[in-house]
Amino acid sequence: MGVLRILVTGGAGYIGTHTLVEVLAAGHEAHVIDNLGNSRPAALARVRQLTNRGFGFTRADLRDQEAVAALVAGFRPEAVIHFAGLKAVGESVADPLGYFDNNVAGTLSLLRALRESACRRFVFSSSATVYGDPDYLPIDEDHPRRVANPYGRTKLQVEEILGDLARADPSWSIALLRYFNPVGAHPSGRIGEDPVGIPNNLMPFITQVATGRRAALNVFGTDYDTPDGTGVRDYIHVTDLARAHLAAVDWTVVDWTVVDGGDGAGRGCAAFNLGTGRGTSVLEMARAFEEVSGREIPLVRAPRRRGDVASCYADPGKALRELGWRAELGLAEMCASSWHWQSGNPEGYPEDEL
Ligand code: NAD
Ligand code: UDP
Questions:
Q1: Closest ligand to Cα 151
Q2: Domain ranges within the chain, ordered by starting residue
Q3: Is the Cβ atom of 138 under 6 angstroms away from ligand 1?
Q4: Which residues of the chain have pLDDT under 70?
Q5: Measured in angstroms, how far is the CA atom of residue 205 from the centroid of ligand 1?
Q6: What is the pLDDT of residue 3?
Q7: Could you read off the pLDDT of 225-279 as tens digits, one per residue?
């Protein structure tokens, strides 16, 4: 794949910054658009330091149609990686309109701007949440989609919109990347996950227990039908996830000199699971973290969390077959890098660092 101009929406966020590092390391030219609603300027500054590469940044909301149109006209992206979105399930239940507006209307605004441009390559951050309570494991891409909350519905709706778009205009190549449970941080410890307030997710909660910011880990449910009774998930290292985005961009670049039957047509719209294929329980994760960090993680039995499923893990075979990507990093690397980031930045990114 040659060098591309890649527009990265939500590039200041957790997965965006890690992907930006890989995009720049691969030699691509990048431009980030982010409203910094859930991220800090320091995150982007650190990506610049880590990569020693420049990239453009526009602080704007995706729903600002004029700003997005001007950016697309000026930067002329050849591919888009679309991370920008709100992602807190509980918040989406309390404020569904805010979620549909931000995630669905934000995406429509971006797509309208792209329609006026030549760019027809699009990589979307979807989620394993679109599978709901699984009928079977491991989950493949043909598993029925059903969602249990407004956040999940925004992902499903955007998937549907992108599918319709690709059917209407065959020049599109659209990858729907369904992430399982992203964890971990860049090995440098300079960028990582920086949740606001009390973390909802397991790994940031564990790391905050390890630094002493929280007293103990509440284990949500110990009577699931799983080997040790706690919830099982497919945790994936954010660096592996970041690399999958490069593989997906690569996939959107169709070389019709080697593919039969093409006349400028794109690949259409396809979904890919991004996971390791391996399930890990809450207790296994807590133990793995203790081993790597040398810190004790006190555990407290807590009731099941509403809406949680017992087990969820991917069949990642399609990503290997069609994107040539597979996860390479294991639990030890996930825990070690999370700990490196959190211990070096116990309060997350500094507010005043630029
Ligand atoms: P994040 O909140 O760290 O990053 C999202 C970024 O998008 C933030 O920097 C935020 O400021 C920006 N943003 C949000 N709405 C915007 C808007 N309307 N205009 C401009 N910028 C906007 O989240 P993340 O964990 O990096 O997730 C990235 C994407 O991946 C999201 O779409 C999320 O739903 C999806 N995803 C995340 C997970 C996960 O566990 N982290 C799992 C599955 C899917
Ligand atoms: N979990 C937990 N305590 C916490 C946070 C999460 O026991 O403080 C459990 C949760 O019930 C699930 C797993 O850890 O079984 C992963 O939860 P997370 O919120 O990280 O991801 P989800 O799969 O729910 O999106």
A1: 1
A2: 5-344
A3: no
A4: 1, 255-264, 354
A5: 18
A6: 94
A7: 999 999 999 999 999 999 999 999 999 998 665 555 556 689 999 999 999 999 9
| 274/176 Cα distance (integer angstroms) | 10
pLDDT in tens, 155-180: 999 999 999 999 999 999 999 999 99
CATH number of 5-344: 3.40.50.720
Q: How many other C-beta atoms can be found within 10 angstroms of the C-beta atom of residue 197?
A: 6
| pTM of the predicted model as reported, rounded to 2 decimal places | 0.97
Q: Is 349 a catalytic residue?
A: no
178 alpha carbon, closest ligand = 1
What's the 90 CA to ligand 1 centre distance in angstroms? 15
State which amino acid sits at residue 349.
Y
Nearest residue to 288 via CA among 189, 195, 184, 200: 184
How far is the centre of ligand 1, averaged over its atoms, from the C-alpha of 77 (Å)?
20
* Catalytic hit among 151, 179, 224, 349: 151
Residue 37 is classified by DSSP as: T
Q: Which residue has the tokens 């910054």?
A: 17
User: Is the CB–ligand 1 distance for residue 272 below 6 Å?
Assistant: no
- Count CA atoms within 13 Å of residue 128 on its CB side: 27
